[in-house]
Amino acid sequence: MITNLLFYIFATILISSAICVIVVKNPVHSVLYLVLTFVTSSCLWMMLKAEFLSLALIVIYVGAVMVLFLFVVMMLDIDSENIKEGFFANLPLAITVGVIVLGEIIIALYGRPIITENINNINQNISNANQLGFELYTHYSYPVELASIILLLGLVIAVALTLQKTDKKAKYQNINKQVMVNSKDRLVLLDIKNNTAVDINDGANK
Amino acid sequence: MEILQNLLGVGLGYFAWYLLNAIGLIIPLVVFVAYLTFAERKILAYMHGRLGANRVGPKGLLQPFADLLKFIFKELIMPTRANKWIFNISPVILLFCALLVWAVVPLSPQIIFTHVNAGVLYVLAVSSLGVYGIVLAGWSGNSKYSFLGGIRASAQMISYELAMGFSIIGVLMVSGSLDLVEIVKIQSIGKMGGGLLSWNWLPLFPLFLVYLISGVAETNRAPFDVCEGESEIVAGFFVEYSGTKFALFMLAEYLNMVLVSALTVLMFLGGWLSPFPMSFGFIGKSSILWLIIKVCFLLFGFIWYRASFPRYRYDQIMRLGWKVFLPVTLVWIFILGAWIISPLNIW
C-alpha cells in the first residue's frame, strides 16, 4: 500500500516538475526543475529495485551533466521578459514535433513485445551492479564498445571545434618551465661592500 | 526498537527508531565538528607560534559554543536583487548532502545507520549533489565575487571528482564489492598477516595518494582553496551570507572534511581494524577507537597542509587534476587489472 502511495507521490512530483521545466520564466529555475525531475525518476527506479541504474542516474546526470548545464545557463545573458516571444508563431511546429515524438514512443512500446522473459531470469542473490556489468560485458559487449566509440568521437569533435590555431602574437605560459623553477632561479643573494658599485648581472652570470 | 513499536504501533515505532538513530548519529558528529574548528584554531596557532583561542572557558574549551552563539545572534542580511528562494535554500542543500552521506558510512560492523550493499555508489551519488549548494549560493547572491567563487569551486569539485572516482574503482577492483563493510573486511585478510601492511594503502599507493590529495581539493581546503581566496575574491561563494546561514556553510565544509577522512580510512587505511596483527591480543583487536584515531590523524593532516603550503594558482589546480591525477589513476587501473589476473595476485 505504502509503495503505491509513494509511487503516486513521486509520479506527481515528476510530472509537475517536468511541466515546470518548460513553463517557468527564469532559465536557471528550469534547470533546477530538470534536476528535480531526474532525482524523482531516480527515486522511481529505486522503487523498481534497480538501485545501480538509479544511483548512476544521479551520479552522471545530476552530479555532472546538469551542473555543466547550470554553468552555461548561468553565464547566458537572457532577457527573461522577452523569452516567451514568438510562442504562438512556433506553436504549430512544436505541436507537430511533439506528436511525432510521442507517436514514436507509443509505437516503440506497443509495436513489438517488450523483452519480459529476461526479467524473470534475474537472480535475486547477486547484486544489481554485478548482474548489469556481467550482461554488458558478455552479451552486449559489442554495443557497449560501439557506444563508447561514438562518445569518444563526440569528445574529439568538441576538442577539434574549440581548438584554435596558435596565434603567433598571443602570449603563453610554459607550464613545465614554471613548475620546474626553483628559488635559485628567482633570487640571488649578493655580498655588497659599502660604497662600491655592483653589476646587476653579476649574480645572474654566476 | 520493540519498545517503541509497542508504544507507537509498528509503522510509527519503526520511524521513531530511525529518527532516534539519526539524532544519535548527527549530534556527536556536530559536536565533533565544533571541536574540530577549535582544534584547527589551536593547531594553526601553535604552528604560527601564537597562543590561539584561550579566553572562553578553561583553556578556551568553550570557544566553539561562543562562536555558535555569535552566529545565531548576528543579523541575517539579504542582498538586494538576490534570488531569495535559492539564496536561502542553497546552504540547506549543501548541509543536507553533507549529512545524508553519513547514512551509509559504517563506524564499525555494528555501528552503521543503514547497511546497503551499494554503499560506495550511494556515497558517490550523494556527495556529487553537494556542488549544487555551492554553485547556487554563488549565483543567487547577485554579486560578482560570489559568482566567481561559485564557478571556481564547482569546476574544481567536478574535476577532482573524476580522479577520486577512478581511485575508488581501484579499491573496488581489489575488494570486489560496493559494500563499505565488506571493503574493510577484505583488508583484514591477506598475505601480510592482517596488520598495517595488509591494508589497501600499500598495494594501491598511487591511488591512495591521489585520493588523499583529491580529498583536500574536493573539500576546497588549503592549498586548493582558490574558491574562497581572500586576496582575490574576498570569501568566494559565501561572501554574501551572514549569521546562521554562514554557519551552515562552515558546518558543511567541516563535515565534508570529516567525511573525506572517514572514507579514506575505510577504503585505504583499514577502517576499524587495528594496525597490529590479531595475535597481539588486546591491542590487535579491531574497534571504533582505531577508526576515530585514524580519522583524527588525517584531519590533523588537513590542518597541517593549511599551515604549510601556499595557495595553488587556479590553472595549476586544473592542470594537476586533469593532466596528472587522471592519467595516473587510469594507468594504475590497467596495471592493477593485470596484477589481479597474474599469478602474483595477493587478493
Oligomeric grouping of the chains: heterodimer
CATH superfamily placement of the domain at 1-77 in chain A: NADH-ubiquinone/plastoquinone oxidoreductase chain 6, subunit NuoJ
The amount of beta strand of chain A, in percent, is: under 5%
Range of strand content of chain B: under 5%
Global structural class of chain A: mainly alpha
- From the alpha-carbon coordinates, what is the Rg of chain B to the nearest angstrom? 21 Å
Task: List key phrases describing it.
heterodimer, A: 206 residues, mainly alpha, Four Helix Bundle (Hemerythrin (Met), subunit A), 70% helix, B: 347 residues, globular
Write the layout of secondary structure elements.
The complex is a heterodimer of chains A (206) and B (347).
Chain A lengths: L1 H22 L3 H21 L3 H25 L11 H25 L5 H4 L7 H11 L2 H22 L12 H6 L2 H4 L14 H5 L1
Helix pairs in contact in A: 1-2, 2-3
Chain B lengths: L1 H7 L1 H39 L14 H11 L10 H17 L18 H9 L2 H11 L3 H32 L4 H9 L16 H14 L11 H4 L9 H26 L19 H21 L5 H28 L6
Describe this structure in words.
The complex is a heterodimer of chains A (206) and B (347). Helices cover 70% and strands 0% of the residues of chain A. Chain A has 206 residues and is mostly helical. With 347 residues, chain B is mainly α. Chain B has one domain (75-341). Chain B has 13 helices and no strands. In chain B, helix 9 packs antiparallel against helix 11 (243-268). Chain B is globular, with a radius of gyration of 21 Å. Chain B starts with a helix and ends in a 6-residue tail after the last helix. The chains are: A mainly alpha (206), B mainly alpha (347). The interface between A and B is medium-sized, with 22 and 27 residues.
